[in-house]
Amino acid sequence: MQAQPPLLLVPLGPLPTPSLGAGASAMSSEPPPPAQPPTHQASVGLLDTQQARDRSPSPLRGHVVPSPLPTRRTRTFSATVRASQGPVYKGVCKCFCRSKGHGFITPADGGPDIFLHISDVEGEYVPVEGDEVTYKMCSIPPKNEKLQAVEVVITHLAPGTKHETWSGHVVSS
């Protein structure tokens, strides 16, 4: 059996510079001081401009998106059964962002916009602004104060828009 070489422990931070005075050892057991944030004028000005910059206009800016996002996978079985037994509503897709995975539906009978998650869209097309949809509603936990659209089906594609399928093909309507 061959003997294993001893382990060599290497510190991950900057090494303290040893000061070898009278009676001082080469290695200190004190930890290195914490890193200080940069204080030069360029970095301070950069932080101020980032906080004061104008935000780009977004249709989702005024809406509060629930966190964590309630998806079909995280919804309880009882909530799914209650939603599937509920009435079918009609509305129009206000906005939908495929990369973010959510959007909002404006109900046909008025009222506040309804949250829509990507996992609740049925069919082959990604919803776009102006699509007419039918949906059922489910409450959003934990407080169950807000509503979410489930079993969303696009009934009429918005005229004059390009629609994308889930596989990535683009179709003009």
Structure description:
It is a single chain. With 173 residues, the chain is of the alpha+beta class. It is built from 2 helices and 8 strands, in the order H-H-E-E-E-E-E-E-E-E. The chain has a 5-stranded mixed beta barrel with strand order 1-2-3-6-5. Strands 7-8 form a two-stranded antiparallel ribbon. The longest helix is centred in the first third of the chain and has 12 residues, at 41-52. The radius of gyration is 28 Å and the shape is elongated.
Query: Beta fraction of the residues?
Result: 25-35%
Q: Provide the gyration radius in Å.
A: 28 Å
Distance between the termini: 76 Å
Helix/strand structural class: alpha+beta
Largest sheet: 5 strands, mixed, barrel
Total helical elements: 2
Dominant shape: elongated
The strand count comes to 8
Report the helical percentage: 10-25%
Q: Can you write the helix and strand succession as a string?
A: HHEEEEEEEE
Q: Uncertain runs with pLDDT below 50, 5 residues or more?
A: 42-50
Average pLDDT confidence is: 74
Strands ordered across the widest β-sheet: 1-2-3-6-5
Summarize the structure.
The protein has 173 residues and is an alpha+beta fold. It has helices at 41-52, 77-85, and strands at 89-97, 102-107, 114-117, 121-122, 132-139, 147-156, 162-164, 170-172. Strands 1-2-3-6-5 form a 5-stranded mixed beta barrel.
